[in-house]
Amino acid sequence: MVEFVETVFDINDDLAVAGKLSSCIGLVVSRLLIFDRKHRVKDKLSSVFGFVGEKVGNVVGGVRGDMAEAGINVPDGGGGGF
Question: Would you give the distance in Å from CA 52 to the centre of its chain?
C-alpha cells in the first residue's frame, strides 16, 4: 500500500496531475455557477425535490392511516433501519 502511494506521488511529480486537475475542476465549477445564475437550475431542482418530497410524505401518511384503520401495528419511524 505504501509503495502504491509513493508511486502516485512520483507520477504526480512527473506529470503535475494534481495542478492540472485542480485547474480543470475550477473551470468546470465556474461554468456551472454561471449556468446556474443564468437559468436558475438550483431553484428549479429544489422546487421539484420539494414537490416530490411533499407527495411522498402524503402517500406515506395515507398508507399509515390505512394501516392504522385496518388495525395493523404502524411503525412510528423513530429508529432502526439504516
Answer: 15
Summarize pLDDT for 18-72 with one digit per residue, the tens.
Answer: 999 999 999 999 999 999 999 999 999 999 999 999 999 999 999 999 988 888 8
> Whole-model pTM?
0.55
End-to-end alpha-carbon separation of the chain, Å?
Answer: 32
Burial degree of 64 (CB within 10 A; 0-12, 13-18, 19+): middle
